[in-house]
Amino acid sequence: MRGTSLSLVACRSLNTSVQHLLNSIDALLGDWLRERGQGAYRVRQIRHWLFTRRAADFGEMTDLAQSLRAELADAFTLWTTQVARHTRADDGTEKLLLTLTDAGQIECVLLRDEVRRTICISTQVGCGMGCVFCASGLDGLARNLTTGEIVEQMLRLQLLLGPDERLSHIVVMGMGEPLANLDALLPALEEAGRDDGLGISNRRITISTVGLPRAIRRLADAGARYRLAVSLHAPDEALRRQIVPVGEKISLADILAEADHYFEHSGRQLTFEYVLLAGVNDSPQQAEALARLLGRRTALVNVIPFNPVAGLPYRTPTTAAQQTFRRILESHGLSVRFRHRKGNTIDAACGQLRRRSQKGDAALFRLFRPAFRPSARP
Ligand code: SAH
Predict the structure, then answer these.
(1) CA of residue 209 to ligand 1 center, whole Å
(2) pLDDT of residue 339
(3) How many Å lie between the centroid of ligand 1 and the Cα of residue 51?
(4) What is the average pLDDT value for the chain, to the nearest integer?
(5) 209-244 tens-digit pLDDT
(6) At the topology level of CATH, where does 82-368 sit?
(7) Which residue has the higher pLDDT, 375 or 177?
């Protein structure tokens, strides 16, 4: 039902005097309604329409007077992005490529399994971290997303759900480094968590970070209780510096210390992500070293076999190498999950869809596979 409304909401162009409501719903609406002598309960009504009833337009908010709906539509926009591409896989995964008002593009994904409806959202246009295997950072960072642009991804993906489906999880694992844009991200996640927002509890929201120690500290100090996934990708400092250049001045020891501090404050089990690159970081010795590095932490290790990116020289390790890597980690008592990207359909790698689109590649509509769904053993 809701899927059809996308085309309707995609076309509203942004007039600069019109404010993006999703940037700060309570503050913007509160002031505006007060000036018009409207009660504060109207904020609750509008929130309910947006988050629970999935309204795509003020016009749908039928318990508001028609004149008020028209005034709201003049003063605010809900949608600043346009859907440039909407792809669906036969397993229910849907991916949106969104064009922003300044023509930048971002991606976001809806993943379905038997019970979960997980969305994966972006926080920046491009990425400045420069991880050598990642498509998102190949063209560097263009800019941070606004809170409104982050909330908009959530609502656009929610509009893809059928009436009996409900969003259950959020992973902040799309394009960009979330902890480099905390100012915009935290208010957006607050909207996700609020009972009068999307109502998704903090433990069902995961932020994935390249590992910025000061920002992890800020998250802990802010009392955040989101799950934190820290991208390690190497068991020693020298190799990490090569794979994650932004980490040049950041030691693994500092990252682990701040991750431990976050665990103590939030009570949330940590996840460590490790992209497995054939011949680079996938040897049995490196698995041993990773196990030593993580020691007795009660953490989950999320191993991600490399998802090929056009033009990059890395390879996905063989199934045998993946199994050996897993066995070694498990033999040291670590909980291991493999996030397996089936096939070599390269559009699944985050950032890849955008690159192809910008190059005008007609192969864009090729079926893609879920990028963030943990699989059974490889
Ligand atoms: N900036 C955040 C979010 C990145 S996306 C971070 O660094 O954690 C989430 C995960 O996917 C990260 O661990 C990232 O390193 C990984 N990833 C990116 N490109 C990949 C690729 N081509 N194959 C496998 N994993 C990839």
Answers:
(1) 9
(2) 83
(3) 29
(4) 88
(5) 999 999 999 999 999 999 999 999 999 999 999 999
(6) TIM Barrel (3.20.20)
(7) 177
Q: Residues 154, 167: contact at Cβ < 8 Å? A: yes
DSSP, res 374: B
The model's pTM is 0.90
Sequence ranges of the chain with CATH classification 3.20.20.70 = 82-368
Contact call for residues 336 and 378 (beta carbons, < 8 A): no
Q: Is residue 163 classed as helix, strand or coil in its secondary structure?
A: coil
What residues are labeled active site? 107, 350
pLDDT computed for residue 364 by the predictor? 27
> Each residue of 24-66: pLDDT tens digit?
999 999 999 999 999 999 999 999 999 999 999 999 999 999 9
Query: 15-77 adopts what CATH topology?
Result: DNA polymerase; domain 1 (1.10.150)
Stretch(es) of the chain classified as CATH 1.10.150.530 = 15-77
**Which secondary-structure segment (H or E) carries 335?**
strand 335-338
Q: In angstroms, what is the span from residue 42 Cα to ligand 1's centroid?
A: 41
Please identify, by atom number, the ligand 1 atom nearest to the C-alpha of residue 273.
13
Q: What is the secondary structure of 241-265 as a DSSP string?
A: HHH-GGGGGS-HHHHHHHHHHHHHH
pLDDT band at 14 (very low <50, low <70, confident <90, very high): very low
Angle at CA 115, nearest 5°, toward 109 and 116? 30
Q: CB under 6 Å to ligand 1: residues?
A: 129, 131, 133-134, 173, 177, 208-210, 231, 273, 275, 304, 306-307, 309, 349-350
Q: Which atom of ligand 1 is nearest to the CA of 305?
A: 24
Give the distance (Å) from ligand 1 centre to CA of residue 180.
15
